[in-house]
Amino acid sequence: MRVSMIISLMKPNLKHECLIEGCKCAGNHLHWLTPNDVLGARFCHHKTARKSGGQAIQYRLPPDLNFMLKLILEPANRVLLEMRGVQCRTVFVGTAGKEISSSMWSSYFSRLLNKLGTARFTAQQLRTIFVAERRSASAVEGPGEVGAALTMGNSPAMWDRVYDRSFRRREMQAAVDAMQLWREGAVGAVDAEALANVMPVVHEEEIEICLQSDSDSDNEVKSV
Questions:
Q1: Distance between CA atoms of 216 and 224, rounded to whole angstroms?
Q2: I need a surface site. Which of 11, 47, 152, 196 has the fewest CB within 10 A?
Q3: Could you read off the pLDDT tens digit of each residue along the chain, which spans 224 residues?
Q4: What is the dihedral of CA 114, 119, 120, 122, to 10 degrees?
């Protein structure tokens, strides 16, 4: 998920008005699927909204994420409201109880990684790591490729172009490896040793003569 989607996510139980000036939609927001129990998320604005015909990204939150967001929405926001006397529209707020910018979010995330003792990663790098894990042979049980890409506001084709730079190499190697199966199915199994016995024998002296001939031809062309 992109930082722009996170920082623009609005709280449930509010009259949702899009944060983008001039837009009449309900904006990116949480909503209760069951009263104060299960949360759903709807993102009207995401990177590929135009390419997908304006279709929103929407889903029910899994239990662990539902639990963590309820902690933010209930006790954390209640304390901020008591301290500042102002209710912010967005789920994630700064220490002043106001909406945060993308740079503030990135700074907070970097400090969190540092506190956890891990390497510093950009959002782009984290998406690349996620895609690489999903497509690796050692991928753990988790979301399927199409669903994960759509949830990110991407597509498998975009994964190929942007995040998975080794996609073409892996696909070509898999095709080459499968060519033997194709040959066996098309013309039958080939006896490699028998084929080697009928191939013409080329001696080292003949190879050297051919190489020397090619070299002389190149020199003649350069001198013309």
A1: 13
A2: 196
A3: 778 888 888 888 777 777 777 787 878 889 999 877 899 998 887 766 655 556 788 889 999 999 999 888 887 777 777 777 667 888 888 777 778 888 888 888 888 888 888 888 888 888 888 888 888 878 899 888 888 888 888 878 888 888 877 767 777 887 888 887 877 777 777 666 665 666 666 566 656 666 666 565 555 545 55
A4: -140
Scan for tokens 């990177």, then name that residue: 47
In degrees and rounded to multiples of 5, residue 30 shows phi and psi of -95, 155
Q: How far apart are CA 58 and CA 74, in angstroms?
A: 22
Q: Which residue has the tokens 């139980």?
A: 13
**Judging by beta carbons within 10 Å of its beta carbon (0-12, 13-18, 19+), is residue 15 exposed, middle or buried?**
exposed
The answer to whether the beta carbons of residues 145 and 163 sit under 8 Å apart is: no
Residue in this structure with the two tokens 């753990």, named with its chain if needed:
140
Question: Could you tell me the CA-to-CA distances from 66 to 73, 76, 97, 112, 130 in Å, in that order?
Answer: 10, 15, 22, 21, 21
DSSP string for residues in 122-182: -HHHHHHHHHHHHHSTTPPS---HHHHHHHTT--HHHIIIII-TTHHHHHHHHHHHHHHHH
The residues facing 29 across adjacent strands are 10, 42
pTM exceeds 0.70, yes or no: no
Contacts of 99 (CB under 8 A, 6+ apart): 7, 19, 88, 89, 90, 93
